[in-house]
Design a protein that fits this description.
Arc Repressor Mutant, subunit A; homodimer; mainly alpha; three-stranded antiparallel sheet; 123 residues; 11% strand
Chain lengths: 123, 123
């Protein structure tokens, strides 16, 4: 079965949004080197709320991209890890993120030109 | 200047969301082979509203990823094309989309398992 992102009735289109979500990307990148506990994820993805992190992890778990393991400690320890299905995606996410980090200066300059005074273009 | 997507104060994080938006991805992929007119874009990205397409194109133009050219025909013809800045991104967007299209079956199966009756896991 192969999807078609250009077909509005194909669930691939909605999946594109899911795997393009910044929190999903940051969470998966944080798991790239091995399993990470919930509280460590929250600390490493600075600025994410507990609720948003929970929602993001639940969505990724439902999509089969990460797996949640609970250890019977007191209090219970919960750890997240990438699944084999995620292996082919994580490299692309890393490349997209790296592209954004390398080009944010050019993007910011483009925005300044777009938002700037129009008469400067006529000079 | 290099960004850091893990820094909540860095605009890279917001850029990640922008370039991960499904409409932005589909619009840029539609321009991958050369300039396309607004109405052709709308037809090829089935299911997008005129308003959403306009907003998406304006954001991409502001980010310096596409360029808009108006030809003085009657009525005026408006054409969009990728910029050189977009060249390094379009390949990654194509790969992410292809990954989603190839794996939507596995994702759908994972969702069905997640949503399915829990007692089947105990069998």
């Amino acid at each position: 079965m192969t999807g078609d992102a250009f077909n509005p009735d194909c669930p691939t289109r909605q999946l594109l949004d899911r795997i393009g979500d910044k929190w999903a990307v940051l969470a998966m990148l944080t798991l790239a080197d091995g399993p990470v506990r919930f509280n460590d994820l929250r600390r490493r993805i600075a600025g994410i709320s507990q609720k948003m992190l929970s929602q993001t992890l639940k969505s990724l778990e439902r999509d089969g991209l990460i797996v949640r393991t609970a250890f019977p400690t007191v209090p219970v320890t919960v750890e997240y890890a990438l699944t084999p299905l995620a292996a082919g995606l994580i490299g692309l996410m890393a490349q997209i993120t790296e592209w954004a980090e390398m080009h944010i200066g050019q993007i910011a300059a483009a925005r300044a030109r777009y938002d700037g005074p129009r008469d400067s273009l006529a000079a």
